[in-house]
Design a protein that fits this description.
436 residues, alpha/beta, Endonuclease, Chain A, two-stranded parallel sheet, 16 helices
Length: 436
C-alpha cells in the first residue's frame, strides 16, 4: 500500500496516451491473480414477485446457518455524541461485566472519559475487559503506548492488544480486527462504525464534521455479540472466560429481528461479502448505501449492476472528501461507473461520512463495521447487524435523506471536471481492488 500512496504523489509523471495504455495493461496483468482471488462463486438470491425481499434474505441466512434472533430492541445512534452519551450511561449501570472490542482507542479526551468510567466500575468489582487492534492503534496519531496501558491496568481494567506487530511484520498486515463491539452485562450490546476518538465528536481538521452511525441492541442478538468478543478474547489471552453469568436471559420486549453477520477470516471468510451481495440481490424496489471507502469486491458490484438492470432504484452516498489519500479516487471511479449503469450517486459534502449502512426496500437494513472494500470483505474481522424491522429501517433511511441535504449529485460533467491525475488514480484503485 505504501507503494501505491507513493505513486499518488508522483505528480511529475507525464505519459502520453500510448504509454498510459501500456502502463494500465501491465498493472492489470500483475494484479489479475489477486482480482480473481476475491471473486466468489455462489448461488445468489433470486429476485422474484412472489416473495418479499426480507423473507428471501432471511431464508438465505437460514440456509447459511446464520441465526435471525427475535424480540430485540435496537436504537440507531446518529453520530458520536449520541453513541458515547448512551454508552457511558449504560456503563455506569453495569453490575457484572463490561466487554469492549475496538479497532482503536485513540489516546484523547473521550478515551480518558471512557477509561475513567470503566475504572470506576472496576473499583466496584465489575469485570472490565478491553481489546484493541495493534495495527489500528499504530495507525492513529495518538496511540496508546506501553505507559498508558500500564496505567490503565493499574485501574483494574484488563486491556490487551489484538495480534501485536512483531517481526517479520508483514505476516501481521492482513486480518486486522476492525470490529467495534461493546457488551454490558450480557444484556446490552453496541456495534457500528464508531471507534473511540475525539474526531467522532469534534470533527477533523481538513475534513470537517465526522459523520457516522452506531447501534445499541437489547435482546437475544446481544448473545451473538458476546460470542464474538469472548472467542477473540480467549484466543488472544489464552483464558477461558465464559459461562451462564455472561449470557443472562434476554428480556427485551420489542419485536425487531436481528441477524449478526460476523466475518472471521479463517472460519467464514466469504460470509460478509456474500451477505451484502445477497441482500442487494433480494431487493425489489430500492437500495440505499452509505459507505466511506466504496471500492466493493466483484460479487457486490455484480449484485448492484443486476439490481439496476432489474429496475431497482439504487442510491449510493460517498464522501466528497476523506481522511486518507488515494482510496477516495477509487470510490469516485467505482461510483461513476455505477452511475453510468443507472445508480444515483450522492457526494456528501458536509464533512466526512464514515457510516457503513444499507437499506433494502424499506424492509430491512444493515449497520456495522464493514466497509465495502476488499480490506473489510476479504481480509479483516468485521461485524454487521442485519435488522428486519420497518420502523428501524425507516429511522435509518430518514438519516440517509437528511444527509442527502448536505450532498450533491455526481454527474458526467462533475466527473470530467476532476483532474486527469485523480481520474487515473481512481482507475488504478479500481484495478487494485483486492488491495484496497
Amino acid at each position: 500500500m505504501a507503494g501505491f500512496l507513493y505513486l499518488r504523489g508522483l505528480n511529475a509523471i507525464n505519459m502520453n496516451n500510448k504509454k498510459m495504455l501500456q502502463f494500465r495493461q501491465i498493472i492489470l496483468l500483475l494484479t489479475l491473480p489477486l482480482l480473481l482471488s476475491c471473486k466468489s462463486k455462489f448461488m445468489a438470491v433470486e429476485r422474484n414477485n412472489h416473495e418479499s425481499s426480507d423473507a428471501a434474505f432471511m431464508q438465505y441466512l437460514k440456509e447459511q446457518q446464520i441465526a435471525v434472533t427475535d424480540s430485540n430492541e435496537i436504537d440507531i445512534l446518529n453520530g458520536g455524541p449520541a453513541k458515547f452519551e448512551r454508552m457511558l450511561q449504560d456503563i455506569s449501570e453495569a453490575k457484572h461485566h463490561i466487554h469492549l472490542e475496538y479497532f482503536n482507542f485513540r489516546n484523547d479526551s473521550i478515551n480518558s472519559v471512557l477509561i475513567g468510567a470503566l475504572a470506576k466500575k472496576a473499583a466496584e468489582g465489575v469485570e472490565v475487559r478491553a481489546m484493541f487492534d495493534a495495527f489500528g492503534n499504530m495507525s492513529n496519531n495518538r496511540p496508546l503506548k506501553k505507559k498508558h496501558l500500564e496505567a490503565i491496568r493499574e485501574k483494574g481494567i484488563d486491556i490487551v492488544k489484538f495480534d501485536p506487530i512483531r517481526f517479520p511484520w508483514i505476516n501481521h498486515a492482513y486480518h486486522r480486527d476492525h470490529r467495534k463491539i461493546v457488551v454490558i452485562d450480557g444484556k446490552i450490546g453496541y456495534t457500528g462504525g464508531i471507534n473511540v476518538a475525539d474526531y467522532y465528536i469534534d470533527g477533523l481538521e481538513g475534513v470537517g464534521k465526522w459523520r457516522d452511525i452506531h447501534s445499541r441492541v437489547d435482546g437475544a442478538a446481544v448473545a451473538k455479540l458476546q460470542n464474538i468478543f469472548l472467542a477473540m478474547w480467549n484466543r488472544e489471552t489464552g483464558q477461558n472466560i465464559g459461562g451462564p453469568e455472561y449470557y443472562p436471559k434476554a428480556s427485551a420486549k420489542d419485536d425487531a429481528r436481528i441477524a449478526v453477520v460476523d466475518r472471521w477470516p479463517t472460519r467464514n471468510a466469504e460470509q460478509m461479502r456474500r451477505a451484502y451481495a445477497n441482500a442487494i440481490h433480494s431487493a425489489k424496489d430500492s437500495v440505499q448505501i452509505i459507505n466511506p471507502y466504496f471500492i466493493p469486491t466483484y460479487i457486490v458490484r455484480r449484485a448492484i449492476k443486476k439490481a439496476l438492470k432489474d429496475s431497482v432504484k439504487v442510491e449510493i452516498m460517498i464522501s466528497s472528501k476523506s481522511d486518507i489519500p488515494f482510496t477516495p479516487d477509487g470510490a469516485m471511479y467505482t461510483a461513476y461507473k455505477l452511475m453510468k449503469k443507472g445508480a444515483t450517486v450522492y457526494l456528501y459534502d458536509g464533512g466526512f461520512n464514515h457510516s457503513k449502512v444499507m437499506g433494502v426496500d424499506g424492509k430491512f437494513c444493515t449497520i456495522g463495521s464493514a466497509n465495502l472494500n476488499s480490506r473489510s470483505l476479504c481480509f479483516d474481522y468485521e461485524c454487521n447487524l442485519f435488522v428486519f424491522d420497518k420502523e428501524d429501517t425507516e429511522n435509518l433511511l430518514h438519516i440517509f435523506r437528511q444527509d442527502k441535504k448536505e450532498s450533491f449529485l455526481m454527474t458526467r460533467k462533475y466527473w470530467k471536471s476532476r483532474p486527469l491525475w485523480n481520474r487515473f488514480c481512481g482507475w488504478l484503485a479500481y484495478v487494485l481492488t483486492p488491495f484496497m
